[in-house]
Amino acid sequence: MLKAGETSMTKDNLGRAGALIDRQDTAPTLDDQVNRLIDGAGLNRENNEFFHRARHCPTVTPEAAYTIAATWGRMTRSFMFTTIASLGLNARRFAMTEEPNHLELAVFQTAYRVIGDDVANFAGEFAAVGPQGAAGIHYVWWHDTVTARLAPHAGEARTPGVPAGARVLLASMARLADEPLGAAVQLRVVEHIALDIAVAFRRVCTNVVVDGAPLFARHGDLDWIDSHIRAETGHAASVSDDETGMTTAVAPTPDRDRFVALVAEYVASWAGALDEFARVLPQADGNASRE
């Protein structure tokens, strides 16, 4: 829930992404427009402050890591269920009102397969190391192996609460659950940025020290992160595929314009959430490279 005084979008983040709509040239593809919006929101390793700080932070306190981990658990749970909810809207339309064509079915199949990894670990990278049964659902797996390990060392950081930027993102996800284009928007954006997020998480967790020793030092401690690093390149390729990716079934107008507007809002929300992660990490040295 958004608290009083919070809007669904911060001005700075909306400016970073939404302003690009006003100066769109004749981009050859919808995918190009999406990529420009993602880059414009600073959701890449060169420009994102969270990625930058995670890369150059020599140690991370358990409190900071817990804040990031607990918030990420809420975000990834919402992402999974709201994406499935949006797919359900399309499934109902296909079942009740109109016969889908092969292109629509192919895109639905891609989305089902990618979000299905979060539920059932279809991909070999996840199946090889993920827990069996419901414990392998990604947000549960994350909680049990990362957040729960940090919790005993987190002190006051365990006080319930979701940072403002993350609340904005959760609200955006909730709106997309009621939007037929919502699943395509979320999958296209999240799978594009997921690899950089996973790499940043590994850097954060690797640098958590408790009583003079790394907290995540055992073999397999970071299987959630490592499996995502291996799998996300394939996911990103799937959702941006020229024939079965998320943008291929979007009609020219008004769906195309609506899709771009939804992406602009969504990437701005993601930028705000990752800004919250950056705030709990120390600033990097001013001379630290962003490469």
Summarize the structure.
The chain has 291 residues and is an all-alpha fold.
CATH class call: Mainly Alpha
Determine the N-to-C terminus distance.
Answer: 36 Å
- The string of secondary-structure elements, in order, is HHHHHHHHHEEHH
The CATH homologous superfamily corresponds to: Heme oxygenase-like
Please tell me the overall pLDDT: 90
Structure class: mainly alpha
Per CATH, what is the topology? Answer: Heme Oxygenase, Chain A
SS summary, helix count: 11
Give, in spatial order, the strands making up the sheet with the most strands: 1-2
Radius of gyration: 19 Å
CATH architecture classification: Up-down Bundle
Helix content percent band: 55-70%
Largest sheet: 2 strands, antiparallel
Strand content: under 5%
Count of discrete domains: 1
The number of distinct β-strands equals 2
Give the CA-based shape: globular
Low-confidence blocks of residues: 19-27
Structural write-up:
With about 290 residues, this protein is mostly helical. The chain has one domain: Up-down Bundle (Heme Oxygenase, Chain A). Strands 1-2 form a two-stranded antiparallel ribbon. Helix 1 runs antiparallel to helix 2 and helix 4 runs antiparallel to helix 7.
Task: Provide the fold topology.
Elements: H1 11-22, H2 30-40, H3 49-56, H4 62-96, H5 102-120, H6 124-127, H7 138-150, H8 164-177, H9 182-206, E1 209-210, E2 213-214, H10 223-239, H11 255-279
Antiparallel strand pairs: 1-2
